[in-house]
Amino acid sequence: MKNIATSPRNRRILRVRRRAVMTTFERRAAIASVVALLAASVAGAQREPAGDTPRFVGTWRLVSNTQTGIMIYDSLGNMAAQAMPNRVRRKYAVPEPTPEEAKDAITGYLAYFGTYSVDEQARTITHHRKGNINPGGVNDDVVRTYVFESNDRLVLTPAGSTNTIVWERAR
């Protein structure tokens, strides 16, 4: 009895059919993968946290006539802030500043980093400072009330103060 798979013509036909079957299977697998990814991304988008906390994430620019600054919040709870007087500062005469030049350069400069937490009920944000240009401000917490005047405008008020600090989302 002759094996029909042994003839060259029949082997070619079987290979073509196997390829067609594999191609169909691969197409179905690819379509199923795309559907699964779309379903996962839709489910992930639906689970995105609501409320004010995600609104902080991004880069903010200080709005002031007397200072310039930047503040950054990330989605992992890290933050950094820097502000300095909006004035012309003298350049050092030589690479190593004199004590007077160093003092002038740092006067009015604020810089710190750490983590943050938001209390949406109290409408406060707390900066948990881990590093600070001011050695006395390391490992302390700074609490501010917040108001989002829009998605791009944030007003912070230090605890116990009526002074406001206005930030605009950087573009």
Question: Which structural traits does this protein have?
Answer:
171 residues, 8-stranded antiparallel beta barrel
In short:
This protein folds into 2 domains: 43 residues; 117 residues, Lipocalin, CATH 2.40.128.
Model description:
This protein has 171 residues and is of the alpha+beta class. The protein has two domains: 4-46; 53-169, Beta Barrel (Lipocalin). It has helices at 8-46, 53-56, 99-106, and strands at residues 58-63, 67-73, 78-85, 110-119, 124-132, 140-150, 153-158, 165-169. An eight-stranded antiparallel barrel has the order 1-2-3-4-5-6-7-8. Strand 5 (124-132) and strand 6 (140-150) form a beta hairpin. The chain is elongated. The N and C termini lie far apart (79 Å). 10% of the residues are buried. The model has no long low-confidence stretch (mean pLDDT 85).
The portion of residues assigned to helices is: 25-40%
Report the span from N to C terminus.
79 Å
Element order, helices and strands?
HHEEEHEEEEE
Largest beta sheet: what is the strand line-up?
1-2-3-4-5-6-7-8
- Report the uncertain regions: none
Helix-and-strand structural type: alpha+beta
Name of the CATH architecture of the largest domain: Beta Barrel
Using only CA atoms, what is the Rg? 30 Å
Structure annotation, total helices: 3
Strand tally, please?
A: 8
CATH topology of the largest domain: Lipocalin
Q: What quaternary form is this?
A: single chain
Q: Determine and state the CATH class of the largest domain.
A: Mainly Beta
Give the number of domains: 2
Strand content: 35-45%
What is the mean predicted local confidence, pLDDT?
85
> Outline, from the CA principal axes?
elongated
Major β-sheet profile: 8 strands, antiparallel, barrel
